[in-house]
Amino acid sequence: MRRVVTSESLWWSASLAVFLLAAAVFVLHVTPTPGALLTRRVFDDGASARRARNAQFADPNVWIRRDISYLRTGSPLVGAAARDTLFDIYRANSADGPAPTIVWIHGGGWVSGDKADPAHYLSRLAGAGFTVVSLNYSLAPQRHYPLAIRQLNEAMSHPSGMATRILGWGVNNTLWAYSGSRAVPSPALDQMSTIRHLTPGFPPTWIGAGNADPLTATQSIPLAAALREQGVAVSTLIFDTSTPEQVGHEFQFELGTPAGQRALASSIEFAHRVTR
Length: 276
Fold this sequence. Notes:
Radius of gyration: 22 Å
Mean pLDDT: 85
Oligomer: single chain
Largest sheet: 4 strands, mixed
Helix content: 40-55%
Keywords: Hydrolase, Membrane, Transmembrane, Transmembrane helix
Organism: Gordonia defluvii
Low-confidence stretches: 159-167
Domain BD-FAE-like: 88-157
InterPro entries: AB_hydrolase_fold, BD-FAE-like_dom, GDXG_lipolytic_enzyme
Protein name: BD-FAE-like domain-containing protein
């Protein structure tokens, strides 16, 4: 039986589509939550695929102790879930005695990410002679700035052992979700922006960036330049257009690529040099 599509049914379908689009635009305009959760889903899906793709590169000679709390019971800094304030430790099986420690704080635009996402990469750092501590912290939109900063400061003391436009929208939305304010200019952004608080006392820094990452031109290169203006020692591995391969965001974790292997070797060399 053939279904007849009338002009009236087409009008109703078009009207419904316009209504849904208008409703979506309205919701995204009044609250950052849907956008933040969408960003989280995209980031988490990407992290999951990367974990599966790179698991083969984990160092088998490293032990991992997972899910240790870095806050005392009853601390006012506890997050929305128990996972918020846990950390993992990576150390080579052959390690004997103290070793330089790398504290890993994952990215994710303040709305996504987990301490275990780069486990394969962290195991390789541990295998190179470091103790690696990977931290979780509270995420937006469930929790706001500066809770995560206060949590990480507490953890550091270890008391208990298409692109560019879409990216720009994502950054603005996650900042809104994280700070709890849509104000522009944002006082929270002024406080959180590393480049605005540099001093000659900033520690030696390693920066890796890809030629297909829109953050390279807007963040990585300006940060390296600003650090050098302060007299800070900076080591960079920044791929430009002379590199034939497309090197994207978080290329460092892709250990099956020449760029990823080069970044791993460069960062390990840097870490050994500054911890001797």
